[in-house]
Amino acid sequence: MRTRYLLLPLLLLALTASAQDPQFSQWYAAAQYLNPALTGNTHQDRIALNYRLQWPGVQPGYETYMAAYDHRFSTAPVGMGAMVLRDKAGSSGLTSTTIGMSYSYEARINYKRAIRGGVRLGYTMRGVNPDGYLFADQIIRDNAPQTIEPNLVPRTNYLDLAGGLMYYSESFWAGVSVNHLNKPNMSLMVDGQAPLERRMSVHAGYRFPIDGQRTVAKSETRMTIATHYKMQGKWDQLDLGAYADHHQFTAGLWYRGLPIVKAYKPGYGNNEAVILMIGYQTENQLRFVYSYDITISKLTMRSAGAHEISLIYEWPKQVKKRKHKIVPCPKF
């Protein structure tokens, strides 16, 4: 059934309100989206595919797709990559597609520590399907099939800039990234103004062996504790959790929310989900990870939570005679 708004102002308010970017529960599996400084944090080449279906109980749900490729040069501390991100928001026909190119550079502090910086240039195409709405002029004209409202622009395009920094050692890493540095205008109205708020992300992690080995490099069973704080406009949220790697298997548990520090309205705590994650890596470096978000907000499980799948393939397994260490970040 179509979503219908009888009054144009309601639609225009929905299209010009401050938007929230799509998010991934497996945020490190979408490295370029998380932080352009992570571009090329692999032995040499990597392909990543991500899919998220959020709230399928609220048909048709919210879908996000992402495909990315990045390359790390063996002769220089440089990484380059490209990504395509598509997001579809519910039944309203509102979609956005972003194509981005990323570049990163690594500066060595010493043989155990380094800093990476990265930038991303993106181009976004955002649009809405007017067929999903019923305008007042259509009712006046005996339920005409199309609106003649002149203020609505079905599609808009804009450039989008992002940047980030990353510090790392063998066991610890911390990074920050800022998206929409240029605050592009995403309005779907003629002469409308709807600047896209900057999204800031702060992420950190610590990894340690739990099988008695002294170093992570020699360990076959290790634990990773990681956190991810993100803020955009008046909205903010925290992901906190841990996962364990044992040989080729991965399992983790996460919490998403920020209940103590901030609540948007009295009686509405900022609790969203508990996330379960499992994964497996084949002998030829192909990783598969599945996660499920258990909704704990007032939407309850009637939303049916969220399903997320990541497929990542890296090659080769190891590059000989490399002068620069790779970023030791989680690789879901």
**SSE pattern:** HHEEEEEHEEEEEEEEEEE
Gyration radius, to the nearest Å? 22 Å
Strand content: over 45%
According to DSSP, the number of beta strands is 16
Major sheet: order of its strands? 1-2-3-4-5-6-7-8-9-10-11-14-15-16
Estimate the mean pLDDT confidence. 84
In helices, the fraction of residues equals under 10%
Helix/strand-derived class? mainly beta
Instruction: Give the terminus-to-terminus CA distance.
Output: 38 Å
Unreliable spans are 1-18
The best one-word shape is globular
Q: What can be said about the biggest beta sheet?
A: 14 strands, antiparallel, barrel
| Distinct helical segment count | 3
Structure report:
The chain is mostly beta strands and 332 residues long. It has helices spanning 8-16, 31-34, 136-140; strands at 45-54, 62-72, 78-89, 94-108, 114-127, 155-168, 172-179, 199-209, 221-232, 235-246, 249-257, 263-265, 268-269, 271-281, 286-295, 306-315. It has a 14-stranded antiparallel β-barrel with strand order 1-2-3-4-5-6-7-8-9-10-11-14-15-16. A hairpin with a 2-residue loop joins strand 12 and strand 13. The two termini are 38 Å apart.
